Amino acid sequence: MRLRDFVRHNFLRGRGLWSLLLFAMSALLFMVPGSLWLIERGHGWVIGLLIGLPLTVRGVELLYRRRLRAAAAAAAAADPDDALPQVPANPEWGERERAVYQALCRDIQARLRTPVDWPALKPIAWEILEASAQRLSDGRRHALDFSLPEALLLADRILMRLRETLRTDVPYSDRISVRKLLWLWGHRDRLQAGARVAHAGWRIGRLARSPVTAIALEVQNLLLSEAGETLKSLSVTRLQALVLEELARAAIDLHAGHLRFSDTELLRIQLGSEITDRRILAQPDQALRLLIVGQISAGKSTLVNALHGESRTETDMAPTTPSPTRHDLTIDGTPFRIIDTNGIDGSAAVASALLAQMLDSDLIVWAIRANRPARAPDVELLERFDAELARRPDRRRPPLIVAVTGIDLLLEGWPFPENRIPAAELEQVAAVLAAIRQDMGGESAIPLRAAPPTWNVDLLVASISDATAEALMTQRNRRRLEGHEHQSGWRSQLRRGASGTASLARLVGEQLRAGRRSAGP
Questions:
Q1: Where are the alpha helices (DSSP H) in 170-210?
Q2: First-last CA distance in the chain
Q3: pTM of the shown model
Q4: How buried is residue 382: exposed, middle or buried, by Cβ count under 10 Å (0-12/13-18/19+)?
Q5: Where are the domains positioned within the chain?
Q6: Is the Cβ–Cβ distance between 227 and 61 less than 8 Å?
Q7: CATH code for the domain defined by 283-478
Q8: Per-residue pLDDT tens for 41-54?
Q9: 355-390, pLDDT tens digit by residue?
């Protein structure tokens, strides 16, 4: 038992009165003569200062200890469901990945109400790996079901994050060589022993210079040690939770397939939708794919014209678009490839073709005619779309914006002065929007007039701009999944084998040539 523990156990537990008396007696022996000397010379206020200052410090110390205990008790009694993760979720995750991450973080908080020994974190970490694999695959995968390239990419990302932390938060991390660090680690026991000896020598010197001050500080350190241990317990608990949450995030990235390709590799993967669009308009493009969906004569082409700000589609030649057409557009600096699709006509063939297009899109604008109450074909296609996404949980759902076109056809007296719609007409518009939102699964609906003079199209453009980040995540998800499907086929594996064989043959040939040159003529 260390001296500090011995003193705390024998003098501060049940025998605290003895320690207080000893301290008071030793203090009085030195304070009484000095106090009398100060009073004789008219400096009694110094005594008040010397008495008031320690009492103030003691009061602050007691308040600090009480708050630490309250924080520890609150952390121990907190509901794990209310605890926020210290490590933020990956913004590229879908709803399923985020839900699994939240569940893992709740498990971590429940396990770490108090600190555990660091070696005991290893089985907990393994349970987190296994739980993430099981929950993301419905029990079909296990902790180590990931490939070596995925593990190497994860290691690369962790090392780069660690490098950034060292450069921004650790002073002189770029000045100390690895050789010095290894030397410090190899002599850590001696350095720690030297530090303890130096600290003991400093305490002895302090006692020799001022016995009263030394005794007072020793007692104060003993009293503060409890608060320090409480703070240390909270810090260790949070640090252990941080380590496990980092592991949980990495496990989800591994088992959800987010580490199959690096960012550079994703940009080289050619999407199937790009090939389809090249067949339509024989030119390459890597912009976000915005799909315009709606019934026949719902105003899709007029809507494309409004987004462009000028007429580029043939809205006056036929009531419907005979085949998908593509238009390039830039919104707030982001390039979009707008696909104007065939109108929904209730046929199974058109619905299947539109469903395939929707699954290959990054953002969907669904045009619905305001004066057309028959929305059953739209609802049926949307239900098929959601059902297909539910069957493929690894696929990210593209953002969907409902554009209610032809809103002016519902309102008598259009256009209104300064585009101010009267209250009665506003109630009529609100009722139509509420009915459309209910039919379309609660999706937000934007009323507008796409034909010149346009109205409220700027709100649609702003909504598209706000959905750009989510659309980009959707495109990255499509690249990752289609790239995995492409590279896991037998042709890709055959190309890999041929490339590896060629590299091995070149290496053997170089070795043979080098051997011949060294042998000489």
A1: 178-186, 188-209
A2: 79
A3: 0.54
A4: buried
A5: 78-255, 283-478, 489-519
A6: yes
A7: 3.40.50.300
A8: 777 676 676 666 66
A9: 999 998 999 999 999 888 888 999 999 999 999 998
